[in-house]
């Protein structure tokens, strides 16, 4: 079994969905989450607060600095993600299709490095 | 010499089967190359089943190699898998393995150039320099694409299996596209050397294999028919001085009758299935062109009308306009092209130029030819367009 990250990105400046649309999105995502759990694929998932709420912590030669804001100043920022466990990329892609339809945005699928054998 | 043809015929099949046995494309390639090196040393005459010999030898070599290198746990696990699997000693290439490998190479998660390069390398046994020459891309680029694609297949766990029937509508088209592009790449380069002809032969060989493996997929049969009917006309396509000869002016006695008969038979098989698709229609159009003494343009136009419904692309619209010109005249065709846009594609201005010339609008025709000449990349086609442009006399 492999683990995959399904990442959803938010793009700065794109219009926010209306409250009503948000409700629909949440309901759709909940439904997919339910499906993921039922299929035994679910590991973890969550939506993130906007990138403005981020803090970067850096330890360099013994001293710690903190910077307000996200690590990379780009328009596209991670907005939320799923971590799923399945047999191969085809299964992960099939789930990504459902996730993309539910959250109405592109979903990036990335494999985790294999865990060392126990 | 015999070994070369065995290599061409068996390399892909053996890599495919070894990939299943070893669970890794890179290891499979190494093992098969090892086995061919042994064959070069040992074969005095061809064994009765060269493929089975190569697979067995490759498997044994792989076990040896894994034994030597089993320092790492992963390698050890692979060796264990090999020992424990209940495969019989004498095992030949398995056809389904090749099909699995085609679908892995043409997985939609890989970029188109990577799909093609990987298919040619793994299934066609072509070397990196050959692929690079065929695609006019630096060798380093092809090598890097292949390495990256293999790494992605391993890291992302792209499966090694034939997609389920329900997935085929999504998964078969990229495979057919790779084979079609491979053939086209070879066919357009009329002035290119033998390597390009090799690409056509390889595309036909792989499509034949695919058709044998999936005899119930009409689009696979359609693609095979299309390639055969196009290939059949190759000897007449270039004149004695290496110049391009248009379909209507070709010496039909030079066409390969055997390929045409086979292509027509495939088109009839497709028609009987009644599940038309873009490749089948294109094959049917080519069947009309290769039937009798001259093309029946009314029938060709009817097929293009159908094609445009299935595949409403500018290229299909352009090809359809050529048929419109034959049936309804150049003015109607020009009108059909009016809103068409195909940036950078020389055949759109070239077709407009021809229609304008037929209408006697010579200045406009000259301008359109000039545009086409600046866009064309193939030297033979450029010479053809320059000739046409010169014949206008304006």
Structure description:
The complex is a heterodimer of chains A (118) and B (394). Chain A contains two helices and six strands, in the order E-H-E-E-E-E-H-E. Chain A is flat, with a radius of gyration of 17 Å. Chain A has helices at 19-38, 89-103; strands at residues 2-11, 42-47, 55-60, 63-68, 76-86, 107-111. In chain A, a hairpin with a 2-residue loop joins strand 3 and strand 4. In chain A, strands 2-5-1-6 form a four-stranded antiparallel β-sheet, with helices on one face. Chain A has 118 residues and is α+β, with helices and mostly antiparallel strands. Chain B is mainly α and 394 residues long. Chain B is built from 20 helices and no strands. In chain B, helix 15 runs antiparallel to helix 16, helix 17 (330-337) packs antiparallel against helix 18 (347-358) and helix 18 packs antiparallel against helix 19. The N and C termini of chain B lie far apart (55 Å).
Strand content of chain B: under 5%
Helix content of chain B: over 70%
Biggest sheet details of chain A: 4 strands, antiparallel
Per DSSP, what share of the residues of chain A sits in E-state strands of 2 or more residues? Answer: 35-45%
Mean pLDDT rating of chain A:
92
The helix/strand order of chain A is: EHEEEEHE
**In whole angstroms, how far apart are the ends of chain A?**
14 Å
Based on Cα principal axes, name the global outline of chain A: flat
The end-to-end distance of chain B, rounded to whole angstroms, is 55 Å
Tell me the radius of gyration of chain A. Answer: 17 Å
Given helix and strand content, the structural type of chain B is mainly alpha
The number of helical elements of chain B comes to 20
Q: What average pLDDT do the residues of chain B reach?
A: 87
Largest interface: A-B, 11 and 11 residues
Question: Helix/strand/pairing class of chain A, anyone?
Answer: alpha+beta
Q: Low-confidence segments of chain B, ≥5 residues, pLDDT <50?
A: 190-194
- Radius of gyration of chain B over alpha carbons? 24 Å
The count of strands of chain B amounts to 0
Give me the strand/helix succession of chain B: HHHHHHHHHHHHHHHHHHHH
For the sheet with most strands of chain B, the description reads: none
């Amino acid at each position: 079994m492999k683990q995959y990250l399904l990442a959803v990105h938010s793009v700065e400046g794109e219009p926010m969905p209306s409250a009503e649309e948000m409700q629909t999105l949440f309901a759709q995502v909940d439904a997919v989450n339910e499906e993921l759990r039922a299929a035994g694929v679910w590991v973890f998932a969550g939506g993130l607060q906007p990138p403005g709420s981020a803090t970067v912590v850096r330890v360099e030669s013994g001293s710690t600095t903190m910077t307000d804001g996200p690590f990379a100043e780009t328009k596209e920022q991670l907005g939320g993600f799923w971590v799923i466990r399945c047999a191969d990329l085809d299964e992960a892609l099939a789930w990504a299709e459902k996730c993309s339809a539910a959250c109405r945005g592109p979903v990036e699928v990335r494999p985790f490095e294999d865990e060392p054998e126990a | 010499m015999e070994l070369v043809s065995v290599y061409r015929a068996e390399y892909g099949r053996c890599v495919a089967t070894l990939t299943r046995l070893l669970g890794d494309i890179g290891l499979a390639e190494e093992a098969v190359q090892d086995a061919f090196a042994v064959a070069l040393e040992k074969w005095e005459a061809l064994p009765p089943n060269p493929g089975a010999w190569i697979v067995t030898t490759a498997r044994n070599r792989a076990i040896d190699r894994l034994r030597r290198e089993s320092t790492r746990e992963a390698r050890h696990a692979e060796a264990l898998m090999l020992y424990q699997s209940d495969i019989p000693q004498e095992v030949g290439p398995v056809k389904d393995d090749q099909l699995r490998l085609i679908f892995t190479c043409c997985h939609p998660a890989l970029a188109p150039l990577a799909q093609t390069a990987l298919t040619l390398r793994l299934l066609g046994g072509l070397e990196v320099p050959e692929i690079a020459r065929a695609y006019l891309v630096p060798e380093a680029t092809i090598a890097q694409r292949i390495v990256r694609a293999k790494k992605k297949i391993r890291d992302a766990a792209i499966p090694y299996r034939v997609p389920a029937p329900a997935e085929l509508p999504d998964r078969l088209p990229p495979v057919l596209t790779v084979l079609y592009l491979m053939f086209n790449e070879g066919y357009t380069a009329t002035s290119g050397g033998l390597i390009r002809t090799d690409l056509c032969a390889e595309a036909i060989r792989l499509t034949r294999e695919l058709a044998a493996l999936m005899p119930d997929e009409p689009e696979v049969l359609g693609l095979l028919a299309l390639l055969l009917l196009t290939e059949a006309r190759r000897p007449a396509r270039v004149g004695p001085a290496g110049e391009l000869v248009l379909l209507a002016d070709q010496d039909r006695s030079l066409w390969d009758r055997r390929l045409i008969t086979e292509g027509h038979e495939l088109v009839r098989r497709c028609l009987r299935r009644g599940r038309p698709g873009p490749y089948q229609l294109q094959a049917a159009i080519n069947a009309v062109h290769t039937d009798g003494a001259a093309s029946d343009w009314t029938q060709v136009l009817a097929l293009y009308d159908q094609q445009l419904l299935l595949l409403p692309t500018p290229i299909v619209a352009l090809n359809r306009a050529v048929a419109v010109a034959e049936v309804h005249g150049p003015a109607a065709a020009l009108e059909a092209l009016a809103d068409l846009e195909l940036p950078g594609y020389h055949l759109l201005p070239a077709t407009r130029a021809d229609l304008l010339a037929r209408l006697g609008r010579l200045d406009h025709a000259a301008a359109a030819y000039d545009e086409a000449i600046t866009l064309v990349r193939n030297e033979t086609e450029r010479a053809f367009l320059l000739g046409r442009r010169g014949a206008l006399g304006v």
